[in-house]
Design a protein that fits this description.
The protein is of the alpha+beta class. The chain has three domains: about 140 residues, Protein Transport Mog1p, Chain A (3-Layer(aba) Sandwich); about 180 residues, Protein Transport Mog1p, Chain A (3-Layer(aba) Sandwich), CATH 3.40.1000; about 80 residues, no CATH class. Helix content is about 30%, strand content about 30%. Helix 3 links the parallel strand 12 and strand 13. The longest helix has about 60 residues. The protein starts with about 30 loop residues before the first strand and ends in a 12-residue tail after the last strand.
Length: about 450
Amino acid sequence: MIRCATRWLVYLCIGLAGMATLTLVRAEDALKSISNPGGGQIIYGPMGPQRSVQAAMGYMLQQVHGHYGDRPQVGRLIQDRSGQSLAAFFNLTAKNYGGERIAGLVMVSVPRGGQPTAAVITDDAQRFPKTLNPMLQRLNAEWNSNPGPSTDSGGGSGPVGVAAPLNQVNFPDGSGSVGLPSGWQLTAAHGGAFEAHGPNDERLIFGIYTPAIDPTNPQARYRLNMETQGGRLPLPGMYVAVPYSMDPGQAFISVANQLAQKQRRQPPAINITKITQGQSQGRASIYVIQADLDVHDGKGFVAMTSEVVRVPPFDAQGNWSMTAYQANVPKPLVDQEGATIAAIYRSYNVNQQVVVGQIQQSIKLNTENTNNVLARARASQAQFDDKLAHDRANQDSRDRTNQGFANILLDQTVIQDTEHNARGTISNDYADALVKANPNRFLYVPTQDYLKGIDY
């Protein structure tokens, strides 16, 4: 049974229609009709035996075609993970009703061993975006008050605007827990953060901590240059390079792009629609970023809401951080899933003792990594200095030798006057005469003792 219509809103609504009541040809189907007070029609109820969910959808679309006199232009078909339910939005021209532009939502369910059911929601195309949610609410209320003989196929999210029941799930590393509805899966959890997926492509990513380095900080530039080898390599781990002074929205996009680059993925398309600044917590600033997000998975844009906590630079090296609590929900599901997402957020618990221990271990490893990088930098600099000194010494030795050879060719020599602490280059005859006349005062200077800038 289609107990909850919200589970079907997994594709962009393209406008719907139809003021006339839809009467299906098979009396045994016993579908009921409801005229929505705000406009639009709801048809729902049990169907006759169906071979498959695809056959049920084909049958319902044939009934729509016959009633309005135009073949429905169907959007992408959406099937739940159980394979027992199918939904599709459609557009058409109501040729049997004056040519009105009509669109609608068809939902069918063929549970194993249960009664097949169907529902069709229609309204005038221009009015449909406003009446869709009320009609879904009315449909859910009708199903819940009069479920009939059908068997629920499972995986629903609960009535529109009402939070689904949650089951608390513990994180494998003991760092926290979160309540999830039936049909949701905890796909990853560590360090108080988690990722969970819903049955209709919902995705929650809570508590993702991203360390950042401010490249405008003078002391950070040297570290960035060393750790990236002059920009040839990405920063290690989850580190990103983003100025803290950057606009919060642009900083969020920059972080997302750099993390995608680390994972060798195409950067996501993020079209920010709204940024709201929340109440600060101590030194941390909080922003709620709403955007249309496409991660290039073939499913198009989804509605993204991310609460971002930004901690300003906390040391002289320009280190700061960003922590995000993000929900990605298919656009047509935003209103219906709001209460459930909020309930999940409230159920989210973090074991601070475990997380602090993990953070301390991470800090230790990061400190060791930084010290190793700096040690390698100092060793590299010392090696360069040694090589430079060696090269200079070799050059000086060559220059002294060349000068000594030149003195031989020019018949001159270098002598030192020890009495006046002076030296000079003079002819060999004059030098020999001085040394012989006063050997205690005048000395020959060997080539290896030449002074740079004086003797050569």
